[in-house]
Known about the structure:
11 helices; single chain
Amino acid sequence: MSFTGFLAQLMEIAIAIALAPLLTGWVNQWRAWLQNKSAPSLWQPYRMLHKLFNKESTVADHASRLFRTAPYVVFGCMTLACAIIPTLSTDLPLAAAADAIALVGLFALARVFISLAAMDIGTAFGTMGARREMLIGFLAEPALLMVLFSASLISQSTSLTTIVETLAKREFAIYPGMALASVAFMMVSLAENARVPVDNPATHLELTMIHEALILEYSGRHLALLEWAASLKLFAYSCIGLALFFPWGVADHQAPVAMLLALPVLVFKLAVGGFLLAMLETLSAKMRIFRVPEFLGTAFLLAVIGMLVQLLLSH
């Protein structure tokens, strides 16, 4: 393990943990502006985390150890997912031990823990939210895998660092398979991050909420970790999209100094992506929960077609 690789890995983890709430605040701010509302402060997510960490965590008497452990597991999974996605450099020690399949596995592990914890208390809302969350995961994870496999056909590897290095060094070209995969990824990202039209992160209506139903029984530091993990998940999906479809600006193994230039490029790309996400949410309407399987089924079909197109063009 080289010193530059170790430094790049630490920087990626630190930047993900630090910038994830800022990205959430940026999206919420633009969403309010586009809806002609008074926007919250850009630093509001940090203030909320500070308030929650200073509050006492109230836990039900019959809550098991799983309920108390789940926030730490979910936060750890999201942090590890951000660590293996090349955002600043491809010289990442953890990337050698984890590929695209392991990345999807981390998202699945976090989903299983938060769903089990929601059912652990035995409330109706928690059980309802867990069922909906597992349904979305069951449909979204195969679509995400197909998107990643479409990119792996170009680089002949499922390693994210190899995919980024291959795509960034190639001449600019529009791949039909990747174009279809990008639409599928956008649909999966909206569903996985509880965004409109699949879910509304600002609602607490019992019949429509999915993510909020999972965390209704949490408070204090446990709720803070889950909210932070949700921001990290949005950050991770944003970085996956940038790595697959806009990989330029990421430093490689031979350019440690380029990491300093990669940071402002990353911030710029995330800012543009956050604005586009807010605009997409503003232009969309919340769909019924029974339409979600059709929505994610379409994403899966687009991803499979994109992979097949890419497979045909590569031969």
